[in-house]
């Protein structure tokens, strides 16, 4: 991205509202620095603190958001219908640097003609798919127990006490066939597994060969491991709950690399405590960071990572580039490179055509398209 805007006496610089995010602050600060270097005016949101529950902006910041042309949110800041409606006269787009946009009211944004962009870069979703594979192999091979045997100088397990199992030949259930889910399917191909998927909104043309699309209950009952990859919405929140966990085999595992709200956490804790499933690997939680007194921390049959399992250098670099490119494209009158609500593009074009005539952006910025 060589430039975002030029200085014209008759025009003001684009204004981008950027929230704070304690988990991603260095990346957010880097994006802010790059935007300011290209002539963008930055308006910052309230401070973010570890342990805060994602919420809407305090009223004092609403006037700031209403002055903005683009808003950059995260999974720790809510952008609801009320906020979007209040900002619709000026707001062009909401950009989340990461994949998750569950805190943005996507339906309201679409209705208002506001585009929502995210960081669905290949580095991001492939890194998450690799992480899911790592979880699966660790669970089946029971690496934690094997490592503990060495650390505690225990003897090699007797043949009738072997605890590891192979991934090959197992049935893997995938909840959600988005970029991450489909990438996991590709990575599973050499392992000779049966793959089931539950993804009601999946386009049949994008379903990988060899995947059996099935109902939720059937998947939960048949899978040796269930991997949660859904984008959480009000309709599928706590898709994995007391009832659906109860359908799983006692020998089965659960992997959650989606969002904490995809799983009924208290129900999962009870299930793991009672050994009603063999174990789980979790990267996301209802409250983050995971509270020190969470019962999950006391369980031997769960692998816990701090919502960072796919947080690689390649991913971070790609997210920063994608956020800048998404914002640059919106400024010059193009949809974000990674757009979550493409059905709103026609309405968006109608909205911004009059806005561009007033501000002269489209004419001035057209030449900077890479």
TrEMBL record:
<dbReference type="InterPro" id="IPR029752">
    <property type="entry name" value="D-isomer_DH_CS1"/>
</dbReference>
<dbReference type="InterPro" id="IPR050857">
    <property type="entry name" value="D-2-hydroxyacid_DH"/>
</dbReference>
<dbReference type="Pfam" id="PF00389">
    <property type="entry name" value="2-Hacid_dh"/>
</dbReference>
<protein>
    <submittedName>
        <fullName>NAD(P)-dependent oxidoreductase</fullName>
    </submittedName>
</protein>
<dbReference type="InterPro" id="IPR006139">
    <property type="entry name" value="D-isomer_2_OHA_DH_cat_dom"/>
</dbReference>
<comment type="similarity">
    <text>Belongs to the D-isomer specific 2-hydroxyacid dehydrogenase family.</text>
</comment>
<dbReference type="InterPro" id="IPR006140">
    <property type="entry name" value="D-isomer_DH_NAD-bd"/>
</dbReference>
<keyword id="KW-0028">Amino-acid biosynthesis</keyword>
<dbReference type="Pfam" id="PF02826">
    <property type="entry name" value="2-Hacid_dh_C"/>
</dbReference>
<feature type="domain" description="D-isomer specific 2-hydroxyacid dehydrogenase catalytic">
    <location>
        <begin position="63"/>
        <end position="337"/>
    </location>
</feature>
<feature type="domain" description="D-isomer specific 2-hydroxyacid dehydrogenase NAD-binding">
    <location>
        <begin position="133"/>
        <end position="308"/>
    </location>
</feature>
<keyword id="KW-0520">NAD</keyword>
<keyword id="KW-0560">Oxidoreductase</keyword>
<dbReference type="InterPro" id="IPR036291">
    <property type="entry name" value="NAD(P)-bd_dom_sf"/>
</dbReference>
């Amino acid at each position: 991205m060589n430039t975002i805007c030029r200085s014209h006496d008759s025009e003001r610089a684009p204004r981008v509202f950027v929230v704070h995010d304690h988990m991603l602050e260095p990346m957010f600060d880097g994006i802010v620095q790059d935007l300011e270097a290209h002539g963008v005016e930055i308006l910052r949101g309230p401070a973010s603190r570890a342990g805060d529950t994602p919420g809407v902006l305090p009223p004092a910041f609403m006037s700031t958001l209403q002055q903005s042309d683009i808003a950059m949110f995260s999974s720790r800041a809510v952008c609801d219908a009320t906020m979007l409606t209040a900002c619709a006269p000026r707001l062009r787009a909401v950009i989340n640097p990461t994949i998750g946009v569950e805190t943005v009211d996507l339906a309201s944004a679409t209705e208002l003609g506001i585009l929502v962009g995210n960081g669905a870069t290949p580095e991001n979703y492939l890194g998450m798919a690799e992480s899911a594979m790592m979880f699966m192999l660790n669970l089946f091979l029971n690496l934690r127990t094997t490592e503990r045997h060495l650390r505690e100088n225990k003897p090699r397990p007797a043949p009738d006490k072997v605890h590891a199992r192979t991934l090959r030949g197992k049935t893997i259930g995938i909840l959600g066939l988005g970029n991450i889910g489909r990438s996991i399917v590709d990575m599973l191909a050499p392992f000779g597994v049966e793959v089931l998927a539950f993804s009601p909104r999946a386009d049949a043309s994008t379903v990988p060969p060899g995947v059996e699309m099935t109902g939720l209950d059937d998947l939960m009952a048949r899978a040796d491991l269930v991997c949660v990859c859904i984008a959480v919405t009000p309709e599928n929140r706590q898709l994995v709950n007391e009832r659906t966990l109860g359908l799983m085999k006692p020998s089965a595992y659960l992997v959650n690399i989606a969002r904490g709200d995809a799983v009924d956490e208290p129900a999962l804790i009870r299930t793991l405590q009672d050994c009603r499933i063999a174990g789980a690997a979790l990267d996301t939680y209802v409250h983050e960071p995971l509270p020190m007194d969470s019962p999950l921390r006391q369980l031997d049959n769960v692998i816990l990572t701090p919502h960072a399992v796919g947080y690689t250098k390649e991913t971070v670099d790609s997210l920063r580039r994608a956020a800048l490119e998404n914002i640059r494209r919106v400024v010059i009158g193009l949809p974000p490179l990674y757009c979550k609500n493409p059905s709103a593009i026609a309405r968006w074009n109608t909205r911004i055509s009059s806005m561009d005539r007033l501000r002269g952006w489209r004419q001035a910025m057209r030449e900077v398209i890479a």
